[in-house]
Design a protein that fits this description.
The protein is mainly β. It is 0% helix and 53% strand. Strand 1 and strand 2 form a beta hairpin. The termini are far apart.
Length: 196
């Protein structure tokens, strides 16, 4: 058994080292492992002065550029969204260890009905929804209709994330107000767009 004596904490955005991320130590003894990653190098190094069993950290939701938290490397965190910014590292695995907090860009999505961002007025008939997304890993559509029970106009469920040029016809057979929404997400967060 060789107790850890050196811990390196890195911060990365889309895989590249970035600095200025303030990481809070929330538990463990001694309490000297938190701090901000260096603005130039993107990491900091802490050396233990005593016996250490484990340390827990809390990462901020966003880095200085506004990129969203996506996960930890070499540090155990919870799977649920609320707790996954907290991680624990056991410091009994050799004399040196490196962990990283990772950030990435949020997804984007743009939705149009008949080529417009809305509001759109169309006579009963066929409307045409188009959307494009970037950096998304999943998209879900939903429809809210007011003053109409016309379910043939609804657009719901999982949708493609493959970028530009996605389209879907909707048949609007009754007068009413329809709001079409698409939500696209990735590990950093969610983007939402609606058209009325």
């Amino acid at each position: 058994f060789k107790p850890l004596t050196k811990l390196t904490v890195e911060s990365k955005r889309d895989g590249a080292l970035v600095g200025g991320v303030a990481i809070t130590q929330t538990g463990g003894i001694p309490s000297e492992f938190g701090g901000a990653t260096d603005a130039t190098s993107g990491f900091y190094v802490r050396r233990a002065r005593g016996t250490i069993s484990s340390v827990t950290f809390l990462a901020p939701e966003k880095d200085a550029s506004g990129a969203g938290f996506t996960g930890w490397t070499n540090c155990t965190s919870q799977d649920n969204r609320k707790e996954r910014r907290i991680c624990a590292v056991s410091l009994d695995h050799g004399v040196a260890r490196t962990i990283a907090v990772n950030y990435g860009a949020f997804p984007t999505v743009d939705l149009k009905l008949n080529g417009s961002d809305g509001p759109v007025s169309i006579i009963p008939g066929q409307g045409h929804l188009t959307w494009s997304s970037t950096r998304a890993t999943g998209c879900v559509a939903s429809t809210v209709s007011i003053n109409s029970f016309d379910t043939s106009a609804h657009w719901t469920g999982l949708k493609s994330t493959s970028g530009t040029g996605q389209s879907a016809p909707v048949r609007i057979q009754a007068a009413g107000r329809y709001t079409y929404t698409i939500r696209c997400n990735n590990a950093a967060g969610e983007a939402v767009d609606s058209v009325v």
